[in-house]
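About this split. The held-out portion is used to measure sequence recovery: a designer receives only the structure tokens and must propose an amino acid at every position. Recovery is the fraction of positions where the proposal matches the reference. Here is one held-out target exactly as it appears in the evaluation file.
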């Protein structure tokens, strides 16, 4: 039976050239390396070395054994990694979400219900979320429309967020048609909301900022409008600004969750609009 530890020593001998250097590399004695080489010859059933009075060298068969050993060791590493990846996958919940707020709410729920579980999440467009759910590459999908097996999780409403002196601050409500053409600060990784803004306001320009800290600084220092939601308002976002609700039907989203994870129940008790 071939021993991987001894195969590593054989490869090291091919790379280093002497038994003593292999012994140093593996922090063992030279006689121990000698015994390992003898064990390998027994395991292969052939001579791997040409032995002289004070020298040992690989013969042609030994050189072939080294190449075989390299491949075996590489496959062994791959096999170990595959098992480790599989084990981690059993403890990982993969989420694809169409928007940030329901993802944050769901992650908090998972932290309570399944502590220690690794959560891998990505915010993406609706079609990408749906594709990931259908091909089985995610365990939980969050969408702004129901699919088979999905349950309503939470609702979220979009607001225009402006400084008190802004021209839009005097309105009690707005439509996308009325704000189309204004320039906005916009966060990245908004998924569904990003698509909504760009499609409903084609004449507007968006100053996109990926860093949340920098984005908040820009909001506080700038007169440009941005967007928030009733969820964001509950978190205390931008208290010095005026928040005007958008009345477009698409500005009121109900998010649905469909899950393959057992032991997690979903309902729309997280209905944000009830608490706004």
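Reference sequence for scoring:
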């Amino acid at each position: 039976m071939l021993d991987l530890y001894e195969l590593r020593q054989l490869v090291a001998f091919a790379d280093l050239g002497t038994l003593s250097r292999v012994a140093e590399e593996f922090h063992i004695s030279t006689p121990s390396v000698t015994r390992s080489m003898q064990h390998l010859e027994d395991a292969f059933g052939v001579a791997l070395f040409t032995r002289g009075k004070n020298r040992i060298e690989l013969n042609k068969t030994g050189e072939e054994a080294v190449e075989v050993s390299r491949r075996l060791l590489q496959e062994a590493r791959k096999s170990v990694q595959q098992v480790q990846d599989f084990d981690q996958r059993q403890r990982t919940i993969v989420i694809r979400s169409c928007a940030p707020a329901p993802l944050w709410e769901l992650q908090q729920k998972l932290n309570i219900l399944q502590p220690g579980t690794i959560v891998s999440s990505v915010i993406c467009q609706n079609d990408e979320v749906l594709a990931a759910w259908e091909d089985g590459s995610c365990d939980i999908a969050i969408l702004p429309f129901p699919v088979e097996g999905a349950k309503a999780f939470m609702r979220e409403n979009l607001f225009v967020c402006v400084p008190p002196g802004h021209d839009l601050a005097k309105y009690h409500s707005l439509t996308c048609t009325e704000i189309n053409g204004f320039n906005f600060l916009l966060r990245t990784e908004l998924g569904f909301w990003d698509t909504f803004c760009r499609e409903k306001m084609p004449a507007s320009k968006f100053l996109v900022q990926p860093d949340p800290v920098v984005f908040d600084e820009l909001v506080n220092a700038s007169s440009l409008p941005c967007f928030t939601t009733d969820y964001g308002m509950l978190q205390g976002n931008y208290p010095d600004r005026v928040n005007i609700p958008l009345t477009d039907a698409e500005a009121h989203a109900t998010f649905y969750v469909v899950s393959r994870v057992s032991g997690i129940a979903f309902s729309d008790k997280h209905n944000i609009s009830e608490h706004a």
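Annotator remark: The mean pLDDT is 90.
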